[in-house]
């Protein structure tokens, strides 16, 4: 049972950015099985659901109670359940990995993977994703990616991370998704779209966010984490003073239909 993030599920939910309105609009247009199908009538599975950001929003936005949040970390699902109750949203929470989805064959209309595909063992997970999709089903994989080239601050932030963890993983997600889906051979109409947007932060919310990535939290000691936070605070104030600031993102969205190319 994975507990990679569960020890700080509340911080993860509080500080990680959400997704832009344009993403939800694109999903509503792209992922329905047919033009006449209502999303509220579809069975929706969110794999690697974490604290339920996408699953809860999907259930609330599209008015469906047929959303399943699948997550290997029970502590993350506890936080998701708490958030769903606060929002008055009804959905199903299931503990399980992407590599062994505990659902029947061809039982899902819409399948989302948000900010999680890079944690999967793709040689096992991709066949499982396809197995649970109906023949008319759609898969959508997406990440929020900071646009470092658009911000001097982000350049300084990345260099600070490299100082503390020069061996952290980076890049390759776009190529990885498309290659893995093509290799399996049972997905069609593969597409990639980039949605640009900005997120507003305060000094404290960015400091909170910066402590959540695994390549920071899992590598740095408590003393190093404090040093990292102090150095980051100085960088923030040098660029923005003590006021709010915006960070440029792009949500990288990959969609595919069940079927062969």
Explain the layout of strands and helices.
Blueprint: H1 9-15, H2 21-30, E1 44-47, H3 53-62, E2 67-71, H4 74-87, E3 92-95, E4 108-114, H5 122-132, E5 133-146, H6 152-164, H7 173-184, E6 187-201, H8 203-210, H9 214-217, H10 222-240, E7 245-258
Parallel strand pairs: 1-2, 1-4, 2-3, 4-5
Antiparallel strand pairs: 5-7, 6-7
Descriptive account of the structure:
The chain is of the alpha/beta class. It has helices at about 10-15, 20-30, 55-60, 75-85, 120-130, 150-165, 175-185, 205-210, 215, 220-240; strands at about 45, 65-70, 90-95, 110-115, 135-145, 185-200, 245-260. It contains 10 helices and 7 strands. It has a 7-stranded mixed β-sheet. It is globular.
Q: What is the C-alpha radius of gyration, as a whole number of Å?
A: 19 Å
Corresponding CATH superfamily of the domain at 6-146 and 169-199 and 249-258: Vaccinia Virus protein VP39
Shape annotation: globular
H/I helix tally: 10
End-to-end separation: 35 Å
Helical percentage: 40-55%
> How do the strands line up in the largest sheet?
3-2-1-4-5-7-6
N to C succession of SSEs: HHEHEHEEHEHHEHHHE
Estimated share of beta-strand residues: 15-25%
For the secondary structure, the number of strands is: 7
Average pLDDT score: 90
Instruction: Assign the CATH topology of the domain at 6-146 and 169-199 and 249-258.
Output: Rossmann fold
CATH architecture of the domain at 6-146 and 169-199 and 249-258: 3-Layer(aba) Sandwich
Major sheet attributes? 7 strands, mixed
Estimated structural class: alpha/beta
Low-confidence stretches: none
CATH class of the domain at 6-146 and 169-199 and 249-258: Alpha Beta
């Amino acid at each position: 049972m994975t507990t990679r993030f569960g020890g700080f599920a509340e911080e993860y939910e509080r500080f990680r950015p959400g997704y832009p309105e344009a993403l939800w609009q694109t999903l509503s247009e792209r992922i329905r099985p047919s033009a006449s199908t209502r999303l509220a009538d579809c069975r929706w599975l969110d794999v690697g659901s974490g604290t339920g950001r996408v699953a809860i929003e999907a259930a609330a936005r599209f008015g469906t109670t047929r959303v399943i949040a699948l997550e290997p970390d029970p502590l993350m699902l506890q936080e998701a359940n708490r958030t769903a109750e606060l929002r008055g949203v009804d959905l199903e929470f299931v503990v399980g990995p992407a590599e062994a989805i505990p659902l029947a064959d061809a039982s899902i209309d819409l399948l989302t993977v948000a900010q999680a595909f890079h944690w999967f063992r793709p040689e096992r997970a991709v066949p499982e994703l396809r197995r649970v999709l109906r023949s008319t089903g759609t898969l959508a994989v997406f990440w929020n990616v900071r646009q470092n080239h658009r911000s001097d601050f982000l350049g300084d932030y990345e260099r600070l991370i490299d100082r503390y963890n020069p061996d952290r993983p980076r890049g390759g997600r776009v190529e990885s998704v498309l290659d893995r889906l093509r290799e399996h051979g049972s997905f069609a109409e593969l597409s990639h779209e980039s949605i640009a947007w900005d997120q507003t932060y305060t000094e404290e919310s960015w400091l909170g966010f910066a402590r959540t990535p695994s390549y920071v939290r899992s590598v740095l000691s408590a003393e190093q984490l404090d040093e990292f936070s102090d150095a980051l605070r100085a960088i923030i104030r040098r660029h923005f003073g003590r006021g709010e600031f915006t960070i440029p993102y792009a949500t990288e969205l990959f969609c595919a239909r069940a079927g062969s190319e």
